[in-house]
């Protein structure tokens, strides 16, 4: 897969990394929408394209499937003898084949379907210029030294691994890949290979922070984690740093091909107490060097909101990393980047010091009695509870308030269901947040539904909350 | 001056940094050629523009002169009360003035007159896009961490300090400036401010390596030096690293706005003996990430030379950092970048591993009996002599051979003239290089003529060698 990030564009084709945990129906929709002609697949996922191809409409001539055998993985069956494998394909290749350079820097290079928190995927198209810019930008932003050892905890199919496939090639990095991202394998890989850098959503930090003592290993040196994809709860940041990881935090979207803002650290914050420091680090930060502008605006008028740290508006971005548009979807493209700015659909505030803080996805905001409640803010408080593993807050219909916050919660190792009650968590929350923000419903779950990149699928939870029916005034209901 | 690297382009003007050690006549030529409208000057150099303005042709309406007082420099007289100072100009400014953004990224941003080794300056024009690219590129290439402390040993008027004025702003660096670049001040600044990075031509390395014990200070930590501008002699690299500096080497020209190649280190070379290591580090290296291509070609046909480490050709460069062209000089622009490649005028070889090694400036090659002699190669051997401080080798006319190598040599502290004779140095050289490369003439000098950026002015030495008259066959002549 790493080689494909180079080989596919160099052959003149457009690269479309597909999430291996999608269902066959969705994969068939993506293959058809992109007009796919060739599918490269790992033997562990071979069933997925086979099922997906059968679901293609008859007019779509089936793409060729190439299986990339993995000689390092003993548990996998090798590809069938009749299959075209990646190695056999390479053997048939022409060693003198000249790299197909793009005719100009605006030619498309990669296509990524947005996945995860919404159920309507759109094909985000980026050009060579954009990928070149984001690659250098992310290296400079992270202060990447020469020859790092990079661990792939962030899947390459997620926004092309935030540009680091190309970035690692630029700085001569060593790529360490994992088949399974679990705490034991991650700690073992860090220790065995002397990993210096890795990326991951807050859920990865949470996994490392809550790992049982038995699988934790002493870090071999300075290990930097870049987190993003969701606002990291202060408690998770704090626990991860206590283990010795150095955590950076940035913000970007599929549409910006990687980080567009970065929470650049201010040395003065070192003097603050740990929880305060984590609160600052949870901010999305300032524009990266190659991002032209970031602002928080009124989504209707496009006017800048006051930089007061409290007036919410839509986050907008301008710069070389913004996508060409959504593939074959002019309406969606026009809606997102109509006036030269990319409207992210994220809701945030701008602090007086110019640091952006995301409050929520527009659709995740809970509107209760006319008050906007940031689900992220409520979750952030819930993460501070010592028994809590993960929390997600969504809107549940309410006959009186319109919506009320409904919390889905999983607890840590050793804390079985029943050790914490709904009433106890609600009481605990009342001491820590305004009354209107306190969840009216708490649902305990062993695990929360997630995308393969570790984002909690709020639309799934929102559907569950909707099916629970409206809460009555002041009365909570249990599942 | 640092503020000007930002303020001038942001006001919509083109920035032209002028070497303060030029003579008034040359400065007046540059001011006139560039159509200068405003001159900002340090009080220490006030006489220079005053004299230059008097030499302007009558049709050129004199540019306004603004004096930037230096409150930290007690030895300088303040600007006359009637003068417009930089601070007074700022006071008259409009705090709401909106940054004049370029209409497009190809608009000119900086103009630098090539100076130094030739006597015919040309105005190298770079656009915003090029400067943006070289700035990120040089940070990535050096693996620049956040918040470095950068010492300005390389003047900002020399190719805009190889892009580091802007680079330091990107990474939140601290800029340490010096009025005088001598060994004592440099060591003192490194120690006092905890300098982490600096740039300088090999002459700066030589100065630091040969500094008397009394002015040397223990380095406060890891101090990295980026050298370029001339091939660093192995012996100088070796001595500088022995003191504890970590030396990187790269290659670029005014026309590429900074480094276009970088001698990226191969860990296997660590196993080699010190002199071998220095020989590898003296190579100009491989293209930087944002440089598209570097090649060594036949200067007439443009065809690539074999990558054998011995076939010389002209070094050519293609990429985003190449200049727009020479200002108001279409003929020179066409000659330099006619076919999409920039012809550097440097002569080099490409090694089988893809590393470029510059052998000489075209005009510095000595042609003796039909053999091309690289002056740099001869100098490199001479620098290995323990008594030698600096060496420069140029062509001297010869009745039989056409040209022969003529060495200008200065000796180290404590080695007065006369302690090493011409015959001794020639004999020493014969043991270390092919006979045809051995200098037929050796001239001892207290100091070699240099440009303000530390480049030895070979054209001055070439003129001296020419005036010495031709050598007769086999007979050397003394000055």
UniProtKB/TrEMBL annotation, chains A, B:
- Annotated EC: 6.2.1.12
Give the reaction(s) catalysed. Answer: (E)-4-coumaroyl-AMP + CoA = (E)-4-coumaroyl-CoA + AMP + H(+); (E)-4-coumarate + ATP + H(+) = (E)-4-coumaroyl-AMP + diphosphate; (E)-4-coumarate + ATP + CoA = (E)-4-coumaroyl-CoA + AMP + diphosphate
Family of the protein in this entry: Belongs to the ATP-dependent AMP-binding enzyme family.
Any one Pfam family here would be AMP-binding_C
Query: Which PROSITE patterns does the entry mention?
Result: AMP_BINDING
What's this protein's name?
4-coumarate--CoA ligase
Q: Where is the AMP-dependent synthetase/ligase domain?
A: 1-327
The alphabetized UniProt keywords are: Ligase, Magnesium
What does the record give under GO molecular function? 4-coumarate-CoA ligase activity; trans-cinnamate-CoA ligase activity
Write down the species.
Answer: Triticum aestivum (Wheat)
Start and end residues of each AMP-binding enzyme C-terminal domain: 377-455
Name a single GO biological process: phenylpropanoid metabolic process
Entry cofactors: Mg(2+)
